[in-house]
Amino acid sequence: MKYLVFLMNFVMHIDRYLNIIIDKFGVGSYIIIFLLIFCETGLVVTPFLPGDSLLFTLGTFSAAKYLNIGWVVGLLMAAAILGDTVNYEIGKLLGEKVLDKKELRFIKREHLEKTQNFYNKYGNKTIIIARFVPIVRTLAPFVAAIGKMKYRQFITYNVIGGVLWVSLFTLAGYFFGNIPLVKNNLAMVMYIIIFVSILPMLYAYINKKIQDRKLPQA
To answer: Rounded to whole angstroms, how far apart are CA atoms 39 and 46?
Structure first.
């Protein structure tokens, strides 16, 4: 419970923690943010790490000259692409073994099922679209590997998705994050970003409930 509280606090007040990280580690903070994005996209057991909100905040800090925007964008694109690639390889190696287990210790089966449904609906484009959907973003490469998606196709969508995701959110923070209204209400902006990010999953959940009600009762 304490870990969950800390995580939520980290996500919602990421500007405070980034200040501490940058002040304490200096250039080393680039390694830390690289690892955060790499783990968020590359490890199926860490879908809870901040993604969209972290990118936006990093853009804001870059505009304020705490970080170099070129280094931030370049490193995080590399982290996102490399993360998905590692995730895909994990899926090839362990995916079927994981699915054969009745209980999954570190991965919620419902998250896997949602990602599989997402994949069934959007096909290979899921690798791009999922970049903008929390949890699905982390599990999509894993599920793609289980679904035998060819690596040549995967890496193409992976690169496109990684470049779009990082550049859109980071540059949005860079150009708009230091507008007084946004800067003075950064926590509220984080809430809005997170809410907008989960809208596709919320829509899918509500739509499924509606479809289930329409099915004839046995």
So the answer is: 7
For 200-211, the DSSP string reads HHHHHHHHHHHH
pLDDT tens digits, residue range 29-43?
Answer: 999 999 999 998 998
**106: CB partners within 8 A, 6+ apart:** 44, 45
Among candidate residues 163, 138, 137, 171, the one with its CA nearest the CA of residue 81: 163
Cα distance between residue 71 and residue 30, in whole Å: 8
Phi, psi of 100 (to 5 degrees): -70, -20
- Phi and psi of 113, rounded to 5°? -65, -40
88-134 pLDDT, tens per residue?
998 888 766 666 665 555 566 666 776 777 777 777 788 888 888 87
- One-letter amino acid of 28: G
